[in-house]
Amino acid sequence: MIATMLGFAPLARARGLSRRSPMAAIGVLILALFVIAALFEPLLTQYDPVAADTTALMKPPGGAHLFGTDANGMDVYARVLRGTRYAFGIAIPAVLVAMLIGVPVGLLTGYLGGWTDEVLMRGFDAMRVFPSIILALAVVSAAGPSLVNVVIVLGVLDAPVFARLVRSEVLALRSGGFVESAVAAGNTLPRLLFVHLMPNALAGAMAQSAVRAAWAVRISTTLAFLGLGIQPPTPEWGAMIRQGAEYMVTGQWWVGVFPGIALILLSLGLNLAGDGLSELLDPRQRKAG
Amino acid sequence: MTAIAELRGLGMRFGPMAQGVHALQDIDLTVRPGEILGLVGESGSGKSTLGRCLLRLLAPTAGTVRFEGDDITAWPERRLRRLRSAMSMVFQDPWSALNPRMRIRALIEEPLLLHCALSAAERRARGEALATAVRISPDQLDRMPGELSGGQLQRVCIARAIATNPRLIVLDEPTSSLDLSVRAGILDLLAELRASTGSAMVFITHDLATLRLIADRVAVLYLGRIIEEGPAGRVLADPLHPYTQALLSAHLSADPAERSRRIRLQGEIPSPINRPPGCSFATRCPLAEPRCNAVQPPLLEQEPGHIAACLRVPEGSNRLVPPP
Amino acid sequence: MLLTVEDLHTRFITRDLDDRVRVAEALNGVSFGVGEGRILGLVGESGAGKSLTVTSLLGLLRPPARVTAGRALFEGRDLLALSEAALSEIRGSRIGLIVQSPRSALDPLARIGAQLVRVQRVHRRISEADARSRAEAMLVSVGIPDPRRRLEAWPHELSGGMAQRVVIALALINEPHLLIADEPTTGLDVTVQAQILDLLHEQVRRRRIGAIVITHDLGVVAQYCDDVAVMFAGQVMEQGAVAEVFARPAHPYTRALLASVPERLVLGTGKMLGGPPPDLYALPRGCLYGQRCAHAAAQCAAPPPMSATQSGAARCHFAGLA
């Protein structure tokens, strides 16, 4: 009994997930590996990712350096591992900022409708007209390429996605049901929005958060690749790919390819897990009995 | 005797002004303290809209709504909020009327939290007393709505509705989505609460047999108008309007020995979009005369406290004769 | 007997998030019979398994539900043993089905006439013109005025009552031997409900076919059915002729149900027997009604057999004594 509670229940649940949605299980597995990489990076490599070693410049993969070394003699494997921290460190706060702005806006516009809805949602639409990468480039180049700026810009740019998701759920909940009963009981507007509507309108946004995190990782690495994000020698994947791109033609492929693979894998993992999550959280797909 | 709630000349139309659909027209209705007023009608009669106008959950497009003498027709929600402790509502579908993410305890305590200055401990004690009053056992208080049955959820809704001792409770088909044996328990509870709380209740239903058990007065709605109103005993025993007579005889008795001699109505309720100019029931009424299609019959008092809108009542030719 | 159902069992077998197998025992030995020219009322509260009984019989179950035991003899064949192809041959021709919501039963993208023609030509060789004239005659017999014009109507142009008449016409057009109506009047207004039930009753009598009417309304059973089967937790608790069962109910559940109808209800007695049905995932070993029964005794820990009563049969240890 206790054994089941401690050890086997999560295993059984994982088995359940893998049968229900094998792709989601693969996504969760990939994500788990990246989380381990981010948390236990010092234990997984003997190298300091920012320590230059002039005795080992541009070593190809194999031997002492699993993924080889770059032009500064830094270990690419250690840098890819450390880069995981930057990826999560940008994506998670960016998604939180996006939700912090998008969720209240979605609640308000969905519930009130009318001109509040028109003004706020049209404003967001206007934002979506420009490709987000162009807007991000413009803002970051104006405000300066710091980590905080990148997080804020990504969060603001992604807020409309969450606003739309929450708004559509609120629209479905607004007429009749417990919302009307909450109004009849005399709830204030803030309490109506945050106590009654929010917990019931968040499922779609939560499910999308992993997919949006993947988006944030992609955009932030793109910014770094274009030289507008975090600067080298910080072991950020976008910056590493930018460095590595210069050596592609001369044959030192490993400098850029390994962070590239990490980026693709993390993006894939987040997307697969996110899709699985929406399936589990979406009440329309959840069946009784 | 002052009225708890009063509707005068109430009208409600939905949709754009030009081609809007009249859900309610020329409604005059008074709810007296402590009474149970039955509001009966089929779908499309506007009975639910009427209930929501009484509580100002909807703003009518014509006429006035008074609550304890105050004209609340144009009050903004901010101002109405304080009144919400004096009026409450029980909805048809208990499965959707409760926030699925709140515990039963929090749901029952919510009206107290919103309207009464109580400490957390006092609120908890009141909430438990309310649960006992509606026969919700203490161990169910810490469950989520999804774990309770429909009948239990409706009891929770009733506990919420009586929490602040309101003077008016509107019950919108509170038993029609429940199973038969559960329904009986809810009706029993309502009868008991009526005696113990003294709240006036407006009981909206399509089932006349239920009203016979519980209502003091009955108002019958057809296509957005009140067509008959009076003491429950009189309206149900001796309905004046042909529609009320037909509705009453359409009820299927659960006694096979009682082969009801039904008055068969032809056709269905017309759409409110192309409402007939005269009596709205004239299209289906077996007693209709040409003038019924031309003149909107006035609601006249036919006997003390019993009004009906039928041109044929004064001449005594308003009785539908069931087939032999 | 036109249809004889014996000991029908249906289970829902699923796995939960923790990968444990969960079995819901939804039907637990349903038995009843439908005679020719008679209407059987299948009555019970929600979750009793009324509709599930019909979907089980007609092979319309979807996973995770499946029939695990039982027989259903119809015209000399066991419906539960037939192939899907043989069943679909029977559905819509030998057995007509009327579902609760007429709106969802009609194809929104086909005119009424086209649907009536299609359902005939699926099941037999008949020319378009013949099928059409039969469709018109059928609309007349279900009381639809101006049938020729109605054949050209779209489903959304019909009122609720008219749509239900069309659904009845669809169910009857292939002259089935058995008609199954699942809550045929639930969404309709009180005054329209009587029209539809009168129509059903008249058609069954005139065609001398059998019918099952699923309902939760005892008034429908009392006024329109010949026989009744009272269901609870996936079992028939009591059955017999309507007049007999309503006059002398032998099962405590039937008695409780009858006492709850508005005209018999007495408020303020404080002995209300309503309550949730038993958990289908953990059914009690003995009588399934035991937890709610006012007369439960020691014997009730053992499953009661179906025993003969004055009015028919009841699944109660004390049925004979009452």
Characteristics of this structure?
heterotrimer; B: 324 residues; alpha/beta; Rossmann fold; 2 domains; 8-stranded mixed β-sheet; 4-stranded antiparallel β-sheet; 10 helices; globular; C: 322 residues; 11 helices
Count of DSSP E strands of chain A? 0
Which stretches of chain B of 5+ consecutive residues score pLDDT under 50?
none
Count of distinct structural domains of chain A: 1
CATH fold descriptor of chain A? MetI-like fold
The CATH topology of the largest domain in chain B is what?
Rossmann fold
The total number of structural domains of chain B is 2
CATH class of chain A: Mainly Alpha
Rg of chain B over CA atoms, rounded to whole Å, is 21 Å
CATH class of the largest domain in chain B: Alpha Beta
Oligomerization category of the chains in this entry: heterotrimer
Can you characterise this structure?
The complex is a heterotrimer of chains A (289), B (324) and C (322). By secondary structure, chain A is mainly α. Chain A has a single domain, classed as Orthogonal Bundle (MetI-like fold), CATH 1.10.3720.10. Chain A contains twelve helices and no strands. The longest helix of chain A is centred in the first third of the chain and has 37 residues, at 76-112. Chain B folds into two domains: 5-86 and 164-308, Rossmann fold (3-Layer(aba) Sandwich), CATH 3.40.50; 97-163, no CATH class. Helices cover 31% and strands 21% of the residues of chain B. Chain B has ten helices and twelve strands. Chain B has helices spanning 47-54, 77-83, 104-115, 120-133, 150-162, 180-197, 208-214, 232-237, 242-250, 290-294, and strands at 5-14, 21-31, 36-40, 62-67, 70-71, 87-90, 168-172, 200-205, 217-222, 225-231, 300-303, 306-308. In chain B, strands 6-7-8-3-9-10-12-11 form an eight-stranded mixed β-sheet, with helices on both faces. Chain B has a four-stranded antiparallel β-sheet with strand order 2-1-4-5, covered by helices on one side. In chain B, strand 9 (217-222) and strand 10 form a beta hairpin. In chain B, helix 5 (150-162) runs parallel beside helix 6 (180-197). The longest helix of chain B has 18 residues, at 180-197. The termini of chain B are far apart. The model of chain B has no long low-confidence stretch (mean pLDDT 89). Chain C is an alpha/beta fold. Chain C has one domain (3-94, 176-315): P-loop containing nucleotide triphosphate hydrolases (Rossmann fold). Helix content of chain C is 31%, strand content 25%. In chain C, strands 6-7-8-3-9-10-12-11 form an eight-stranded mixed β-sheet, with helices on both faces. In chain C, helix 4 packs across helix 5 (128-141). The longest helix of chain C is centred in the middle third of the chain and has 18 residues, at 190-207. Chain C is globular and about 65 Å long. Chain C starts with a strand and ends in a 7-residue tail after the last strand. The mean pLDDT of chain C is 88. Chains in contact: A-B, A-C, B-C. Chains A and B meet through helix 8 and helix 9 of A and helix 2 and helix 3 of B.
